[in-house]
Amino acid sequence: MADMLNTADRLALLSDKLLLTIFEMLARASRHDLCSMSLVNKRYHQLADAALYKSLLFDSPEQHLTFSESLDRRPRRGSMISEVRLEYPGSELSHLILDAPLDRSHYSPDRIDGLSRTLSTMSNLETLNIAVPVKLLHGIGTLFNGPFDLACLKTCSLYYQCANNEYWDLQENIHIFTHPTLETLTIKRARLDERGFDSLERPHSTALQALHLLECDINDDALADIMEFPAALKEFHMFHTADPQPELEESSDEINEFVMALKPCAETLETIAIDHPTLGGRKVLRLRDFVAVKTLRLNFDTQLFGKTSKKPRLHSVGFPPALETLEFLGEIGTDEVVTELFANALQNVEYMARSLKTLILAEGPNGLPPPVVEACKDKTFTLLTRRVDEADSEDEG
């Protein structure tokens, strides 16, 4: 016991900042030991609380309900939390009632549930990751309707599990795009129709810098509407499988439509990654207006150059003028006319994309098309290749 007190006395000489760092390391090793340490004195108790509640994972609804009750007794803990993850399946909700309002909520009972009330008390929350049953969709969505309780939120991911793996309705959470401090947003398996935002709802500019749409069924007109809000969007990533299930109803089948939807952010986007194998293209993409784009990732050369048509074709493509990295995830060279256009563009890359440093191509069974290989000779950029099956495995991972 004497040794323990002496150790505590020596620790007491340290600053709060250094003690908090030590407690955070201890929390990662053993939360039980940190809880024991918090009983030594009031100072350690306060610092241990800050370490214990900095990052929370709720993998069952019982956990966040119990925590909600503890916040009612000690609301100060809510301001200590910087990261929350809610991850559990729909089967966990069968025996619980989560849509009843909590006492002292400043929202009317029909607008918010207990979970949302709990999240709204976390005034310093920076990261919020949601992967819960769709039953909680409306309640969590009210968090983003304003006024914004989560005034420090910077990173958010939204995924609501639906029956039969259906897409959830993004319209219920659409005001997440109006959040003033949010910088990185990831949305998985959502559907958004052409309604977008009502004219009366349009926000001022937002801080959004990165938008990731994973396996979503998004209307391109609605996307264009959303793209008017970010003041400086830098990264856009859209991913879908080669066989979308359920079938896409809102999405266009033309890659051009999605590129046009990104036009409001043309001056700030630095990375465009559209990994969407079902998207085709009848026209050559026009990307000269995307003056800041340095990285462009697409599936096939036909997405960039357009498929063969009976109309006359230009022998160039509108590469972003500052492009440094161009990558194709799937096999190229399946269209003879497109292969010719690609080779011609590479031969004249000094005029089209003089900053190009890296070209990454996926090889098919017969390797790369000879005209493309020939066009890459004696160029200043580096050509990297990989097998199509390797690219597929990496994307699945």
Task: Please summarize what this structure is.
The chain is α/β, with parallel strands linked by helices and 397 residues long.
From the structure above, extract its key features.
397 residues; alpha/beta; twelve-stranded parallel beta sheet; three-stranded parallel beta sheet; 14 helices; 30% helix; disordered C terminus; F-box domain-containing protein; F-box-like_dom_sf
Q: What topology does this entry show?
A:
Blueprint: H1 2-12, H2 16-29, H3 31-37, H4 42-52, E1 55-58, H5 61-73, E2 83-87, H6 114-120, E3 127-133, H7 137-141, E4 155-161, E5 168-169, E6 184-188, E7 190-192, E8 210-214, E9 217-218, H8 220-226, E10 235-239, H9 255-261, E11 271-275, E12 295-298, H10 301-305, E13 325-331, H11 336-347, H12 349-352, E14 358-363, H13 370-375, E15 382-387, H14 388-396
Parallel strand pairs: 1-2, 2-3, 3-4, 4-6, 5-7, 6-8, 7-9, 8-10, 10-11, 11-12, 12-13, 13-14, 14-15
Estimate the global geometry from the Cα principal axes.
Answer: elongated
Query: Which consecutive residue ranges, at least 5 long each, have pLDDT under 50?
Result: 94-112, 393-397
Percent in strands: 15-25%
Strand order in the largest sheet: 1-2-3-4-6-8-10-11-12-13-14-15
Topology as a string of helices (H) and strands (E): HHHHEHEHEHEEEEEEHEHEEHEHHEHEH
Structural class, please? alpha/beta
Q: Which value, in Å, is the CA radius of gyration? A: 26 Å
Helical run tally? 14
Terminal Cα span: 51 Å
Q: What share of the residues lie within helices?
A: 25-40%
Q: Oligomeric status of the shown chains?
A: single chain
Summarize the main sheet.
Answer: 12 strands, parallel
- The tally of beta strands, per DSSP, is 15
Mean pLDDT: 81
Protein name: F-box domain-containing protein
Organism: Coniella lustricola
InterPro entries: F-box-like_dom_sf
